Amino acid sequence: MRRRWDIFCTVVDNLGDIGVSWRLARQLVFEYQLEVRLWVDDMASLARIAPEVIPGVLKQLVQGVEVCLWQQPFEYIAPADVVIETFACDLPEVYVAAMAKQVHQPVWINLEYLSAEDWVPEYHGLSSPHPRLSLVKTFFFPGFVQGTSGLLREKHLLVLRNEFDVSAAQEFCHRYNIPERQPDEFRISLFCYDSAPLENLVKLWINAAKPIFLLVPQGTVADKLSVLLGAQQSEIGKVLKSGQLSVQVIPFLEQTEYDRLLWVCDLNFVRGEDSLVRAQWANRPFIWHIYPQQEVAHWPKLAAFLKLFTADMPAKRAAEFCALCYAWNGKGDLDTAAWSSMMNNSGAFQQHQNTWVKQLQCQTDLASNLVRFTRNRI
Ligand code: TRH
């Protein structure tokens, strides 16, 4: 049994890389009782989603995971049985050399970015020999369809979500001084990049047919939104109002708590990779702000996801939803009609989401696939 795992993560920007790595590390510890070291080069970023982490400490045990600062130069350590290099971060040379010297060589996996593109099942599971050393690296590609490595999904996640009832939702709201829901209110969470066309959406929301209550974790988008609503700066807890729109800035949440935010909302704006996946498991309609890549590589990625996600939607609704997503990502104008259609058909969107999530649930989750793969290598 390969019990000792090392996960390496470099924080490029934002929180997706460490978000995925931290989630995976915890799951391997909780569900498989593995010994996991998480090597991260930016503890402060991890501390944002895992406040128990103390940024100045080089090695610390947090929720059963040994969290270690990945420093340069990297000092020699005995390699683990399984080595996960996340998102093609380059492993320290000294560590790779030590891997090659092991009698029982570690299983080396590169965990790649999530994509719905057609080529993903073909590339998932491919191996590549090291150019000099006698080591082989295998590529794991997460995805939404069979033949990929699946998505991160903790064993009890969907049960927990289903058990999250009205009183649990009220408790969550009390923790952050979020007011009781108004009878007709539509609740939205907003997590997006600074480039999103916020002004246009705010205009639509101010003039919406029913009250909208927007929850925004603190950050630059919350700042921008607060100024748009006439405040000097954003203030956690304070509710700003304009027309039908109310906005409340809440603290940036611990990762598990962020799930609950998604569960208490009727619609979630999510971004990047990990929050997109969480929005699926929250089983609520969502709008995705894709991580903008150089050379616009994100457009085919967005198109592939939308094609898959809307495949069983009535054509008109699918077209409106896609137009909304494209506009949110900067292609085309935010169309009032498309937005109203989403609001007016929220029941149909929810039904579509239910079917989609049922389909996704049939996949084996990413952590199980990883563990199974490493067991087969013994
Ligand atoms: O932060 P991101 O934009 O990350 C991005 C993408 O992953 C992208 O693919 C990658 O290349 C780039 O980083 C470097 O969005 P993402 O992926 O949703 O990660 C955010 C993490 O933060 C996720 O784990 C959820 C978590 N989170 C909280 O824990 N609390 C919060 O309040 C919020 C808003 C998010």
Task: Name the features.
Rossmann fold; single chain; 378 residues; binds 2'-deoxy-thymidine-beta-L-rhamnose; 6-stranded mixed β-sheet; 2 domains; alpha/beta; 40% helix
Report on the structure:
Helices cover 40% and strands 18% of the residues. By secondary structure, it is of the alpha/beta class. It folds into 2 domains: 4-151 and 364-375, 3-Layer(aba) Sandwich (Rossmann fold); 157-361, 3-Layer(aba) Sandwich (Rossmann fold), CATH 3.40.50.2000. The strands form 2 sheets. Strands 3-4-2-1-5-6-8-7 form an 8-stranded mixed β-sheet, covered by helices on one side. Strands 11-12-10-9-13-14 form a 6-stranded mixed β-sheet, with helices on both faces. The longest helix has 17 residues, at 16-32. It starts with a strand and ends with a helix. 2'-deoxy-thymidine-beta-L-rhamnose (TRH) binds next to helix 1, helix 9 and helix 10.
